[in-house]
Amino acid sequence: MATGFMTTTAVDTETTLLSRQELRDRLQAVGDSRYHHRHPFHLRMHKGELTRGQLQAWALNRYYYQSRIPIKDSLILAKSDDPAFRRAWRKRILDHDGDQDGYGGIEKWIQLAEAAGLARKQVIPCSGVLPGVRYAVDAYLALVRDSSLLVAVASSLTELFSRDLISLRMDQMRIHYPYLVPGLAYFEGRLTQAPEDATFAFDYVAEHAKTRQEQEQVIGALEAKCAILWAQLDAIDYAYVSPGNIPPGAFVPACD
Q1: Are 135 and 234 in contact (CB under 8 A)?
Q2: What is the DSSP string of 108-120?
Q3: Count of domains observed in the chain
Q4: How many CA atoms lie within 13 A of 85 on its CB side?
Q5: What is the mean pLDDT of the chain?
Q6: What confidence score (pLDDT) does residue 3 get?
Q7: Do the Cβ atoms of 253 and 54 come closer than 8 Å?
Q8: Which CATH number goes with the domain that contains 219?
Q9: Is the residue at 217 inside a domain?
Q10: Which domain holds residue 152?
Q11: Is residue 190 part of a domain?
Q12: Does residue 255 sit within a domain?
């Protein structure tokens, strides 16, 4: 059994380097089976089965993840001594922080939470975030901080699959949760940002994973990131859907 960021496939006797397309296919297989588009919470969301309170809880808890993305990307920047890489990667920080107050993906996520019925003063402090969500997001930061640049970049490759999920989510929100429509600007931006970011990240790992072991580390990093995203939704689903066990100190919806 492999350990760390290696996949469960035994690779000690597999030394042949995967082709670029074979690597892409392996990554796609991870997304097909492990990305959080399959999570029951998202399936309920897309069927229109969530209450306003449950959507508020999702928006508030997901904000903790959104707010940590520029920190994650700053950790990745600090690992690289290549100015060209840093110039390309810092775009991600601007996408989320904006280049001035009132702009960027984090602000747009706050607007989504406001459309759900939350006040920004409830969202920004992250005081009501579930412990499970906090632990999962912090684990993502630790993964990036403690890993090689190659693995840290590879952990972002969930963006390979996010555009399809975002498109579906926007369509279903317009149908089932029309009150959220004024807050969909975040998703609209990610429709173009995510594919651009994914292309750059995949090109990077395809070029810099020089051995089969490094290629397996890339695949393992994507598996780890998928598990982190799944764990966040597990915590939200457990607290706010079934069995509905909200831990002390966590956000309690005021509406059904």
Answers
A1: no
A2: HHHHHHHHHT--H
A3: 1
A4: 18
A5: 94
A6: 40
A7: yes
A8: 1.20.910.10
A9: yes
A10: 20-240
A11: yes
A12: no
Contact 11, 3 (CB under 8 A): no
CA distance 248 to 131: 10
How high is the pLDDT of residue 5? 47
Residue 249: inside a domain, yes or no? no
pLDDT tens per residue, range 18-49: 999 999 999 999 999 999 999 999 999 999 99
Rounded CA gap, 68 and 15, in Å? 36
How many Cα atoms within 13 Å fall on the side-chain side of residue 174? Answer: 9
- Once rounded to an integer, what is the mean pLDDT over residues 201-223? 98
**pLDDT tens sequence across 150-206:** 999 999 999 999 999 999 999 999 999 999 999 999 999 999 999 999 999 999 999
**Mean pLDDT (whole number) for 95-106:** 86
Residue 203's nearest CA partner among 134, 153, 129 is 153
Burial class (CB in 10 A: 0-12, 13-18, 19+), 91: middle
Tokens of 120: 């920004």
pTM, rounded to two decimals:
0.92
Q: Are 247 and 148 in contact (CB under 8 A)?
A: no
- CA nearest neighbour of 27 among 209, 168, 188: 209
Check if the beta carbon of residue 149 is closer than 8 Å to that of residue 79. yes
User: 103: pLDDT confidence band, cut at 50, 70 and 90?
Assistant: confident
For tokens 């750059």, the residue is: 200
Q: Name the token pair of 25.
A: 């296919």
Query: Which residues have CB under 8 Å from 190's CB, separation 6+?
Result: 105, 162, 163, 166
